[in-house]
Design goal:
Blueprint lengths: L20 E4 L7 E5 L17 H4 L9 H12 L2 E5 L21 E2 L2 E2 L8 H28 L5 E8 L2 E2 L2 E2 L4 E4 L6 H10 L6 E3 L12 H7 L4 E8 L6 H24 L6
Parallel strand pairs: 2-3, 2-6, 6-11, 9-10
Antiparallel strand pairs: 1-3, 4-5, 7-8, 9-11
Bound molecules: zinc ion (ZN).
Length: 269
């Protein structure tokens, strides 16, 4: 069956399902454009629970625990536009190329996802059309509009990571993820390392690549925007107090970065 790639969501989402894209502070004046690929853990009603118990749908395999609170508060503190995605990465991962096997994972960490077994092509296409495409189309539209309006844009992609993955503990409190941008990640690493209480990962626990990422390569690198990803360890933002502290800290750091970018003429003064 052919689907309207312009966004016919009727085969997957109905009136009871939330829209995939959530935006905050769309009139924000900050040069930082915040994205959050794994903000939510909603599942379209038509997909039930994907065959998983609630305990699996609450942990990191379903979403980036804690990042929603950090991203929302950071958007407010920085006066920055946030574009976020409400559906679980188990339905479709909005930070994977659509052709990657992990786009709709059959296994995540050690959990088999029964609802993702043996999917027909049109079922996969319906998830893309309903969730993945509207999210990325909206990010592209916002960047287009900012370019037309001569509004400077620095892409910051927000994530969180589980403290223990496949039995291995991760020592970092926060990590930067980057690939082709040589300006912003350098400044961010410098300022994060100046926070003496932090263990900072330089492209740890993940680095950006064209095979394992989508948002930064497509919307940041391919468009020549300064960009970075951020990964915060989930146990540090597991409650509202932690989310608030990290949003406050990142707002202070990105405020300093904005001043530095202007001083370096990487942003208009
Ligand atoms: Zn993530």
């Amino acid at each position: 069956m052919a689907l309207d790639s312009a966004g016919d969501t009727s085969l997957l989402l109905d009136g009871e399902d939330v829209p995939p894209v959530l935006e905050l502070n769309g009139a924000g004046r900050s040069p930082f454009l915040l994205t959050c690929d794994h903000y939510g853990r909603a599942i379209p009603r038509a997909l039930g629970d994907l065959g998983l118990p609630a305990s699996e749908l609450e942990r990191h395999i379903a979403w980036d625990v804690g990042i929603a609170g950090v991203a929302s508060a950071l958007s407010k503190h920085l006066d920055a536009h946030l574009i976020a995605q409400r559906y679980s990465r188990l339905v479709i991962d909005c930070n994977r190329p659509p052709a990657a096997p992990s786009s709709i994972p059959r296994i995540s960490e050690a959990t088999v996802i029964p609802g993702n077994e043996g999917l027909a092509g049109e079922v996969i296409e319906a998830r893309r059309a309903a969730i993945f495409e509207p999210y990325h189309r909206r990010i592209a539209e916002v960047i287009d509009q900012r370019l037309r309006d001569l509004v400077p844009t620095v892409l910051v992609s927000l994530h969180s990571f589980t403290p223990v993955y496949a039995g291995i503990a991760r020592p970092w409190h926060i990590g930067t993820l980057y690939h082709r941008d040589t300006n912003l990640p350098t400044l961010l690493l410098k300022l994060l390392r100046a926070e003496t209480d932090l263990v900072v990962g330089d492209n740890e626990p993940y680095a950006v690549s064209d095979e394992t990422d989508y948002t930064i390569p497509l919307h940041g690198e391919a468009r020549g925007l300064m960009n970075t990803g951020i990964e915060i360890r989930q146990d540090l933002i597991a409650d509202p107090a932690g989310e608030r502290q990290w949003a406050d800290r990142l707002a202070r750091i990105f405020g300093e970065i904005e001043v530095m970018l202007r001083a370096q003429r990487l942003l208009p003064g």
